[in-house]
Amino acid sequence: MKFAMDPAVYRKLYSDLTKDLPLWNAIPSTPGNQYKWDDSTYIAQPPFFDGFSMRPAAFTASAMQSAGRVWRLGHHRPHQPGRCIQTHHTGRQISGWSCVEVKDFNSYGARRGNHDVMMRGTFANVRIKNLMLPLKEDGSRVEGGYTLYNGEQMAIYDAAMKHIADGTPTVIFAGEEYGTGSSRDWAAKGTQLLGVKAVIAKSYERIHRSNLVGMGVLPLQFKGSDTAVSLKLVGDEAFDLSGVDENLKPQQDVTLTIKRKDGSTQKVQLLLRIDTPIEVDYYRHGGILPFVLRELIGK
Asked: Is residue 62 pLDDT above 70, yes or no?
């Protein structure tokens, strides 16, 4: 241990990390204390603090009114962006990407500092199946990150942007162990940036449930024998969520009102999967990021 803890060793090894790396030293750079990330396609300023104020937004009587359903996923569905970026995922719509060659797209992992890229990769797994899409002629399910918007099939990202433009909050319906394989941060960040206000599932993977709360997305759980299948959801319903107000408590019941196209309504009791008092605080503040920032500024 005495050799490992010798400060002189660290000074010798780490005082000039690049002296033996001519290729690294030859990369053009600009002087200064900050990286010029404005022109980068790898780093972009995310919108997590847009409209930030020291006072959290007040709760309304209904946390989510007239929400449209974007997609319904089966069990265990992973949606953490990770693989190589596909051409159709970018659509050349990303700011500053007109000069990026397809061969230089790289992977979602490499571009995790660019939210415009990661949003397009959320729910874009090539094997994911949205159960609200109609079956193909051969009876199989469409695979990939697609959904319906006003009856038209399109990428989930494109539909989500249309819902945001319409001012329509969106909700995900899912099966058991929702979020398995999606415990990393961008699975929840991408969900929030796509305008999803709530996830309703039969059960949750532990870390992803916590991350949803941390991003201000409401995790809700079916009770008893209720499921998205038993409720016979077809994709043209609207939803109201009541019981999420200033008196919010961990694991309380909330009421989902399903408004069907024929004019009928159905009320369903759900379990709120905000499990602890500190998670209530996170959700009240719109997520852990604004919560921590307000704490820091307040000090």
From this structure: no
